[in-house]
Design brief:
Layout: H1 2-5, E1 25-27, E2 33-35, H2 36-45, E3 52-53, E4 60-61, H3 71-83, H4 85-89, E5 116-118, E6 123-125, H5 127-135, E7 144-146, E8 165-167, E9 172-174, E10 188-190, H6 191-299, H7 304-313, H8 335-364, E11 376-383, E12 389-396, E13 424-426, E14 432-434, H9 435-446
Length: 451
């Protein structure tokens, strides 16, 4: 009685993970049952999260629940499989047609989704109603295609026959009756034969396209490698140039310190020698003034005896020592030194200017894509058995990629373009000089420095 009153449904014993009949069923704390392997694999994927969720009710469990076999449910499933009632009670496998699906032309009521269409019957069939086309010999010669809503497009609108011939002259599909009418004498072939030829041409076009894709991918890979290499080299060059210019700055600072100390040392030496000579002269002046005072006193003496005796004891005035030549110019300065420093500054600027031009030219020479790229033309010709040919031509123009075409300063590309661009000439020593600095260089060569 119980068995007769109960209708068993196969879906009631399906695992919601694998969508198949439960195998070794286990029940988790929320009451839902799954295959032992399915729920373990499902929770293994979330093991790193530390939270375990039921696939149906989304209830969280922490820690991971221990799984135990549901003996009663396992026995029910086994009896369900053995009795075979699930197969009898299960409804046929139906797939109802949706809005965009092709409907079965045989189904009544709610129509199933059609899986194939017959070009002979001009109808579409679901799995159930398509079976006679496979089982019955009367349908063996019928041509089945993918389910389509446009079956009438395969019928000749004039003769109501199947379009089985392709007219190469008019480039359209026709029926056999059209061969004796408006397409008489045209270049015609079976549609299947034309399809095979077109498929071959498409295959050749696809292979050619794949070759071009591979070529472009190779070029793109090489370009990426070039960009990466250039960026890495540019960073290394920038760091090395910073080190070089830092060393140059340190060297200039050292020379500046040496010149300052040299000026101070020369000042101390010259002032020391002058002060010694000044002290000596001051002592001689004091001695001469002392002798002059004694002579004045003696000349004013009224005692003749004392005058005569004192005159006999007088000595001739001491001979003054020879004094070195003294430059008596009150405007004596380090002007020549400053001239030499200015000359050094001008020479250094010219050297730096010429050196920067050379550096700038070499920096501009480092490019990945040449300014003028060639025009790539690809021609592919496909020929059929009937002599017809189709040409596929692809002409790819690659615009030149490179530096900006706007005029920039040849001395410094980071400065805005000026109204006049200086020209350059080479000095007799091989250094590159600008037009203005070349004249100053020649003037300095005409007037050698003081030593």
């Amino acid at each position: 009685m119980a068995q007769a009153g109960v209708v068993l449904d196969r879906d009631q014993f399906n695992c919601s993970i694998c969508l198949d009949v439960l195998r070794d069923p286990v029940t988790i704390p929320c009451g839902h049952s799954y295959c032992s392997v399915c729920i373990q694999n499902y929770w293994d994927q979330d093991d790193y999260l530390g939270a375990f969720v039921c696939p149906q009710c989304r209830q969280n469990f922490n820690p991971r629940p221990l799984l135990s076999r549901n003996t009663m449910l396992a026995d029910v499933v086994e009896k369900f499989k053995k009795t075979g009632l699930q197969e009898a009670a299960a409804p046929p496998n139906q797939s109802f047609a949706e809005a965009d699906d092709v409907e079965c032309d045989v189904c009544t009521g709610r129509k199933n989704k059609a899986v194939r269409s017959c070009l002979v019957c001009l109808a579409s069939y679901c799995d159930l109603h398509l079976q006679p086309h496979y089982d019955s010999a009367a349908f063996k010669k019928h041509k089945l295609v993918a389910a389509s809503k446009r079956l009438q497009d395969n019928i000749c609108p004039r003769h109501d026959k199947l379009l089985e011939v392709y007219c190469r002259t008019d480039r359209r599909c026709i029926c056999y009756l059209c061969l004796t009418d408006e397409h008489k004498g045209h270049d015609t072939v079976l549609a299947e034969e034309e399809i095979q030829q077109k498929q071959k041409q498409l295959k050749d076009m696809k292979q050619s396209s794949q070759l071009r894709i591979q070529q472009r991918e190779k070029e793109a890979q090489e370009l990426r490698q070039g960009i990466f290499s250039l960026i890495r080299s540019a960073r290394a060059a920038a760091e090395e140039s910073d080190a070089v210019f830092t060393e140059l700055i340190r060297s200039i600072e050292l020379k500046r310190f040496e010149v300052r100390e040299l000026i101070k040392a020369q000042e101390k030496t010259a002032v020391g020698e002058a002060e010694k000579l000044l002290d000596k002269i001051q002592k001689e002046i004091t001695e001469l003034k002392k002798n002059e005072a004694e002579l004045d006193k003696l000349s004013n003496s009224d005692d003749p005896v004392h005058f005569l005796q004192t005159c006999q004891s007088l000595h001739a005035p001491a001979v003054l020592s020879a004094s070195p030549s003294v430059t008596a110019d009150p405007n004596l300065t380090f002007g020549p030194v400053m001239t030499a420093v200015s000359d050094f500054k001008g020479l250094l600027q010219e050297v730096c200017q010429g050196g920067f031009v050379s550096i700038y030219e070499r920096v501009r020479d480092v490019v990945i894509v040449s300014p003028q790229s060639p025009v790539v033309q690809l021609n592919t010709t496909h020929s059929g058995d009937s002599g017809s040919a189709q040409q596929m031509e692809a002409q790819i123009l690659i615009p030149p990629l490179g530096l900006d075409q706007n005029p920039v300063s040849p001395l410094n590309p980071f400065l805005p373009p000026g109204p006049a661009v200086p020209t350059f000439a080479f000095s007799p020593f091989g250094s590159k000089l600008s037009t203005g600095s070349r004249q100053r260089h020649l003037q300095r060569r005409a007037h050698p420095r003081r030593k």
